[in-house]
Design a protein that fits this description.
Among the domains are: about 35-125 and about 200-235, Rossmann fold (3-Layer(aba) Sandwich), CATH 3.40.50; about 255-365, Nitrogenase molybdenum iron protein domain (Rossmann fold), CATH 3.40.50. Helices cover about 40% and strands about 10% of the residues. It has helices at about 5, 10-35, 40-50, 75-85, 100-105, 115, 135, 205-220, 225-250, 270-275, 290-305, 320-325, 350-365, and strands at about 35-40, 60, 85-90, 110-115, 260-265, 280-285, 310, 330-335. The strands form two sheets. A four-stranded parallel β-sheet has the order 2-1-3-4, with helices on both faces. A four-stranded parallel β-sheet has the order 6-5-7-8, with helices on both faces. The longest helix has 25 residues, at about 225-250. The chain is globular and about 60 Å long. The termini are far apart. It is found in: Periplasm. InterPro entries: Bact_metal-bind_prot9, ZnuA, ZnuA-like.
C-alpha cells in the first residue's frame, strides 16, 4: 500500500501544473478578445489584414475566385458575418447580396460601407461599353511627387483633389503629396444624371490609402486597447502603397497611350489613376453574356481603335474574347480585379496591383 507521502506532488511540479491549468482556462477567453471582423471582397480584406496584423484575423466573405456581383454565401460565411463586431463592405453597388444580411445584423455590430463612409474618389459607371477620350479622361501632363524627390512626369494628370486629407484619421499627419486620379474630382457630383457609382474603388491607390486610414480609425475606436497597433500598422501599409504606386508608374510608362479592351468595365479607377487608354469593354454587366450585336460592335471597335490587346478575366469564360479578336491583330491577356488566384495576406493588395500592371505592360508591349 503506497504511503500518503508518495502521492503528494512536489511544490515545483504542483506550481507547473497549476500554471498550465490557468493558461488552459485563460486561452479561450483570450482568443475571444480578438476583434471579430468580416470583410466582403479580397482586395479590401488584404488591406484590412495589413491594418490588423498581429491583433486580429478578419474573415473573408467572398472567396477570391467568386464574383461579388452574384455570390451566394455558405453557412460558415453567414456565421462569420453574424458574429462579426465590425463588418466592412464596399456597398450595395457591388455586393448586393449582402444588403439584407447586413441589415439584419445586431445593432452592436459596427458597419463600414466604404462607398459612403471612407471619403473615396468615385466615378460614375461608364455607359455603352465603347469609350472615347471623354470617357476615359486623359488629361496629359502631370507631375506627381511623393515627397521623395521624384519629379517624374508621365504625361497624365492627377487631380489635386486626391491630395485632400492625407491625415490617417488617427492623429498622424502624413502628407505624401499625392496628386492622383485624372480629374477624379473628389466628391460625388460628376454631372452624371443616373447617379450610379462604379464600385471597383479599390483599384485606385489613392482610394486604397483612404480605406486604410478610415479602417484604422474605426478599429481604434472599437478596440482602443489595440489602437496604437492599428495605427502603426496603417502607417506601414501607407508607406508600402506609396512605393507601390511609384513602381507601377514606372512599369506602365511606355504603354500609357496603347489602346486595349477589357472583358467588363472594372478597371476605370486603375486606368484613370495611371493614365491608360482603354477603348471599351465587351460587356457592361458581367452576369449577362453579350449578344451578337454587342460582339460585332466590339470587333469593330478593336479594329477602329487599333487595340493591341483584349483582356478576359479568370472568373468568366474567355471564349468570347477569342471570338472578338479573331481576324484582328489584337493579342489576348487576362486581368483580374479581385486577385482570385493570388494568395491572401497583408501584402495581397500589392500583389494584385502589380499583377494588373504586369499583365497590361506585357500584353501592350
Amino acid at each position: 500500500m503506497p504511503s500518503p507521502r508518495a502521492t503528494r506532488l512536489s511544490p515545483p511540479l504542483a506550481l507547473v501544473l497549476f500554471a498550465g491549468l490557468v493558461l488552459a482556462l485563460a486561452s479561450p477567453a483570450q482568443a475571444q478578445e480578438s476583434l471579430r471582423i468580416a470583410v466582403s471582397v479580397k482586395p479590401v480584406h488584404d488591406l484590412v489584414m495589413g491594418v490588423t496584423r498581429g491583433v486580429a484575423e478578419p474573415a473573408l466573405l467572398v472567396p477570391g475566385g467568386a464574383s461579388p456581383h452574384d455570390h451566394a454565401m455558405r453557412p460558415s460565411d453567414m456565421r462569420n458575418l453574424q458574429q462579426a463586431q465590425v463588418v466592412i463592405w464596399v456597398g450595395p453597388e457591388l455586393e448586393n447580396f449582402l444588403v439584407r444580411p447586413i441589415a439584419g445584423l445586431s445593432g452592436e455590430a459596427r458597419r463600414i460601407t466604404l462607398l459612403t463612409d471612407a471619403d473615396l474618389v468615385k466615378h460614375p459607371i461608364r455607359e455603352g461599353g465603347i469609350w472615347d477620350e471623354h470617357d476615359h479622361g486623359h488629361g496629359h501632363g502631370h507631375g506627381h511627387g511623393h515627397g521623395h524627390g521624384h519629379g517624374h512626369d508621365h504625361g497624365h494628370e492627377h487631380s489635386r483633389d486626391d491630395r485632400h486629407d492625407h491625415d490617417h484619421s488617427h492623429g498622424h499627419q502624413h502628407d505624401h503629396g499625392h496628386s492622383h486620379d485624372h480629374g477624379q474630382g473628389h466628391g460625388n457630383d460628376h454631372g452624371h444624371d443616373h447617379g450610379e457609382v462604379d464600385a471597383h474603388v479599390w483599384l485606385s491607390p489613392e482610394n486604397a490609402r483612404r480605406i486604410v486610414r478610415h479602417v484604422a480609425g474605426v478599429l481604434a475606436e472599437v478596440d482602443p486597447d489595440n489602437a496604437s497597433t492599428y495605427r502603426s500598422n496603417a502607417d506601414e501599409v501607407l508607406d508600402r502603397l506609396n512605393r507601390l504606386e511609384e513602381d507601377i508608374d514606372r512599369r506602365l510608362a511606355n504603354v500609357r497611350d496603347r489602346p486595349f479592351i477589357v472583358f467588363h468595365d472594372a478597371y476605370q479607377y486603375f486606368e484613370r489613376h495611371f493614365g491608360l487608354t482603354p477603348a471599351g469593354s465587351i460587356t457592361v454587366d458581367p452576369s449577362r453574356a453579350p449578344g451578337a450585336r454587342r460582339v460585332q460592335e466590339i470587333r469593330q471597335r478593336v479594329v477602329e481603335s487599333d487595340a493591341l490587346c483584349v483582356f478576359s478575366e479568370p472568373q468568366f469564360r474567355p471564349a468570347i474574347v477569342t471570338t472578338v479578336t479573331e481576324g484582328t491583330r489584337a493579342r489576348t491577356g487576362v486581368l483580374d480585379p479581385l486577385g482570385a488566384d493570388l494568395p491572401s495576406g497583408p501584402e495581397g493588395y500589392e500583389l494584385l496591383m502589380r499583377n494588373l500592371a504586369d499583365s497590361l505592360a506585357e500584353c501592350l508591349s
